Amino acid sequence: MHQFPFGSALQTLIQAPLKNAHVFILGVYASAVHARWLNADGSTRVAALAIASEPCIFWRGEGEAEIIKSINVPPAAGCLVVPNAGMNGPSGNALDQLYLEPLGLTRADAWLCVKFRLFINTLIEELRLFLAPVIENIDR
């Protein structure tokens, strides 16, 4: 099983098909909850670190502080805090404001789906093709 830093498991997000959906929205991959990682001295180690799967497809960032607080960070590693505005939920907010609302629709009208496995399989294949010459040279 794949994990984020600090141990949160990578989740597969699936929305049950909506029989009365007016639109079908296909995203490329699910996003993640991001946090600012601070060193023990309070300085920023990473401005936006993916720490957990987003709780729903096209998440809008709601509840980010609670999710971040739920991640167990060893004291010597510092702490996680809410990142700068806009780091969590930008695709969900854009979906609502730029696409659904202008059409007079809400999420209750939309069947949301992401193709995470297709994305990962494509990424793995691209890496394999890119690294093949390097691996060949190592074997010699």
Walk me through this protein's architecture.
This protein has 140 residues and is an alpha+beta fold. The chain contains three helices and five strands, in the order βββαβαβα. The strands form two sheets. It has a three-stranded antiparallel β-sheet with strand order 3-2-4. A two-stranded parallel sheet has the order 1-5. A hairpin with a 5-residue loop joins strand 2 (32-38) and strand 3 (44-53). The longest helix has 24 residues, at 116-139. It is globular.
Give a quick precis of the structure.
The chain is of the alpha+beta class and 140 residues long. The chain has three helices and five strands; from the N terminus they run E-E-E-H-E-H-E-H.
